[in-house]
Amino acid sequence: MASSTVTVSSDIDLGFAEECEEWLLTNTYFPSKIGGRPAWLDLENLPMPDEIKCVKCGECLVFLCQVYASLELSDDCFHRTIYVFVCKSSACWEVNCSKNVIAFRCQLPRVNKFYPFEPPADDKHLLETKAIVNLCATCGCRGPFACSKCKGVFYCGASHQRLDWKNGHKQQCMTGNDCPKSSSTHLFPEFELVLESEESVEPVKETVEQSESRRMKEYQELMQSGTVNDMPDVTEGDLMPYAQNVEDEAFGKFKKRIAWNNDQVLRYNRAGEPLWISSKNTLSNEQVPSCEQCQSKRVFEFQIMPQMLNHLKDIGLDWGVINVYTCEKSCSSAGYIREFVYKQDIVQESQ
């Protein structure tokens, strides 16, 4: 007897990677997105190159994704975006280690020096709102160093200048400011990050009578097939080796929860709880460090799911989930505030 089901909505928003027009992913439209160059919100007080470096290899991190998440906590949170950067070196990815992943929070009031009061309509093709500072031609982060020859292209450091020269700038470079904009192969593929309310299909709870009827029918089917009579005698000792392979409880819940939305790449649930992928190496709310800016506690905001890896086309990257925690008060400050990131992986234990 098949049990009936019901569609259940939650307070969680799920993020899905979708292709869209490139111009809709610029800062003019306040996007949530994956890959490409970051769509900076504050166009003047960008992080310095040393703030976006991997602490393990010293190389510049690459933009992974950003989530536009306006809040009603104060006027300063009208425009609000969280940015995540990662290292592309596979040697820097250690199990349950978050040192090569960083997140920044940036926010602006509705009345600000960069954007008009009213947001643009999605059907109007407007140009990107240009940054006040120079941007790196390779990664789109702050670029304080100019090409010594053409003086018209900028970089965050020597490594990204070398990448751009290999990508064609060396042949294009001329004296003067007429070099075309570089297209970087160093970046991740670009997608819009579309957020939708989570919905799942769950079985309706059986009554006692329905449960007894279902079990009786299943038993009768087993008897008719002869399966019950054919079962060999097994001892508890015989079953012990198989008990070691019982699936991690948290991982079982994880798979069940995402089963109805297998292509989700992000889960947004500010001040909620993350969906842990393993029972081990979880993090309690008390273990999350306070905001360095205002000393308020941090709360969970969103997590990046392993499904995002399918869209990045980079076999050197790997994670279970990446959880981002932000200041509970979303305190205000010019520029970009570093927030807390926690990466959890599935550890295969040796037998």
Précis, in short:
By secondary structure, the chain is of the alpha+beta class. 17% of the residues lie in helices and 23% in strands. It contains 6 helices and 12 strands.
Helix share, percent: 10-25%
Distance between the termini: 40 Å
* H and E string: EEEEEEEHEHHHHEEHEE
What class, by secondary structure content? alpha+beta
Q: Mean pLDDT, nearest integer?
A: 86
Uncertain segments are 227-236, 238-246
Radius of gyration: 25 Å
What is the 3D form?
globular
Our count of helices gives 6
Mind describing the biggest β-sheet?
Answer: 10 strands, antiparallel, barrel
Number of beta-strand segments: 12
Strand order of the largest sheet: 1-8-2-3-4-5-12-11-10-9
Beta-strand content: 15-25%
What attributes does this structure have?
351 residues, two-stranded antiparallel sheet, 17% helix, 23% strand, globular
SSE map:
Elements: E1 5-18, E2 33-34, E3 62-68, E4 79-86, E5 101-108, E6 145-146, E7 154-155, H1 158-172, E8 191-203, H2 208-225, H3 227-230, H4 236-243, H5 249-258, E9 266-268, E10 298-304, H6 309-312, E11 321-327, E12 337-344
Structure description:
- The chain is of the alpha+beta class and 351 residues long.
- Helix content is 17%, strand content 23%.
- The protein contains six helices and twelve strands.
- The strands form two sheets. The chain has a ten-stranded antiparallel barrel with strand order 1-8-2-3-4-5-12-11-10-9.
- A hairpin with a 7-residue loop joins strand 6 (145-146) and strand 7.
- The longest helix is centred in the middle third of the chain and has 18 residues, at 208-225.
- It is globular, with a radius of gyration of 25 Å.
